Amino acid sequence: MPWLDIYDRMKVDIPIGEVRGMKISKFEVKHPDDWTAADDERKDVVSPLEYVRMERDGRAPKPGWYTRLSEGETVWMSDTSAERRDHAEPVFIMASVKPERLLINGLGIGMVLAAVLTFDSVKHVDVIEKDERIIELVGPHYLRDPRVRIHHGDAVEQMQQWAPGERRDVGWTDIWPDISLENLPQMKEFADFYGKRCGFHGNWSEDLAKRLVWDDRYSERDYLKFLTEEDREWFEAEDEDEDWDDE
Known about the structure:
Shape: globular
Structural class: alpha/beta
Order of helices and strands: HEEHEEHHEHEHEHEHEHH
Largest sheet: 5 strands, parallel
Mean pLDDT: 93
């Protein structure tokens, strides 16, 4: 399945709205060369400075309109191409294994859930979401599909309620607001638990957090234990490729 098709499956189409400070809104991304004086007064467009910052980090989206979930000045999630890329792993797996029963920890704007529901093989999806406002704001859009069940609860506490012998074909956990190596201990807890109960389970941003550890491995020794031998070999190979490119 082409990657483009996977990204298209993850584009969301939920309506704008607000529930007790949690907000769904639309925003536009414009290339700085296309910026006009009229855009200076807009609040729904990414500024040229922000675009340059995202471009520097390799995360500048293509020009167009996107959806985001925010609280005040904090953006919790959006469906830009970079964020869809961060969440593409479980969708790629689904395209290969044709799953029937899935678990998603963290609803957000539902990028992974939106993709899940495009697969005919899927019969049931359990979504665990801690923030009741997100359930009220985003949930109704997806609950129109009878295959979806959204549970209000904490993902960690939900593990304690897992029935013996219960399994899922695919599990995905996205409960962290940012990319941080400090998330790795909890990510390992999820990986250890669901790794035995799901055909595949992944954590959002785990690879990126491990990369932070690797890049600062001399000062972040306490987190090196969360890197597997495979992780180390992968990062070493990446570093060698970068050295080659620099030449």
